[in-house]
Task: structure prediction
Amino acid sequence: MMSSTAAVTAAIERVPVEICKGINGLEKVILREVRGSSAEVYLYGGHITSWKNDHGEELLFVSSKAIFKPPKPIRGGIPICFPQFSNHGSLEQHGFARNRFWSFDTNPPPFPTNSSNKTFVDLILKPTEDDIKIWPYSFEFRLRVTLGPSGDLMLTSRIRNTNTDGKPFIFTFAYHTYFSVSDISEVRVEGLETLDYLDNLQNKQRFTEQGDAITFESEVDKIYLSTPTKIAILDHEKKRTFVIRKDGLPDAVVWNPWDKKAKAMADFGDDEYKHMLCVEAAAVEKPITLKPGEEWRGRQELSAVPSSYCSGQLDPKRVLLGS
Result:
C-alpha cells in the first residue's frame, strides 16, 4: 500500500502543471498535455493568454501591444466578463473580474469531471472591500481551466451567492475569447444564421441575421440570442475550424473592431484586427439572478480541428453535426 503522503506526491507528479512568472513578473500557470498542446493562465484576471495545439501553433490572439500591468486588462486571450458584460450596467466596461488577482482554489467543491483529464487548475475570486463598495454583494467565483487529452480547452465557471443578508444579485457574463485567424476576410462563422441579434453599433437594436454564414468586411459587434450549444469558426486559409461548445450560456457575441477602432485602441496594433475574431459564449440578454446559497455554472469547450473540404468549399455541417 502506498502511504497517503506518497500518493499525494505521485498525484502531483502526474499533473503536468507548472507555476512560474510571466510578463512583468505576473504569476501564471502553464498546463501541458503529453501530446504537446498547452495553455497558459495568468492569476491576474484568471486570464488565459495562450492555447497551443500539439504542433505548437498559437490558437488565441493576444495583441503585441497588450499591457500586462494592473489595473489594465490584458488585450486578447480569454478575458472573463463578470459581473457585467460591456456597458450593460453601471460598472466599468466588462466588470472587474478581468482586472483582479485570483487565487489558487486548493479545496474546490466536487463537480462531475472527466477523470481522464489530469491537466487542470482551479482558481477562485472573492470580492475585496473595494469591490463591495462598487458592487455590494458577496460571492465566490470558481474557475476550472482544463486541457483535454486531445488539446481541447475547457473553462468551467461556478458563481455562488454568499450573501448573508438575504440579498439576491444579478449579473451578465461572457468568455471574451479572441481567436487567432489567418485573415478576417477569409473567415466565416457557422451556426448563427437566421438568429436574432442585438447590434451594438446601432444602439442595441434587434435584427435577424440574413446570411447563410457570417463573413466579415467591416466592423461587427453583435449579440446573437438563443444560440445553439455549438458554433464553428472556419478559417479557409489555415484549413482549420474552431468549434465552440457551450453550456449555460445562451448568447454569443461576435466582435471585430476593424481599422478605425483598432487605430483608436492604445493596446491594439493598427492592423491586428485582420488576424483576430472574438466569438464569445455569453449570458447577456437575460441576466442571471442568484439568491443566497444558489450557484450558477457556465461552461465553454474549445477545440481546433482540420477543416474538411467539399467541392472547394469548407463543409461546416460535418463539424456542426458531428460529435
Notes: DSSP finds four helices and 23 strands in the chain. The mean pLDDT is 90.
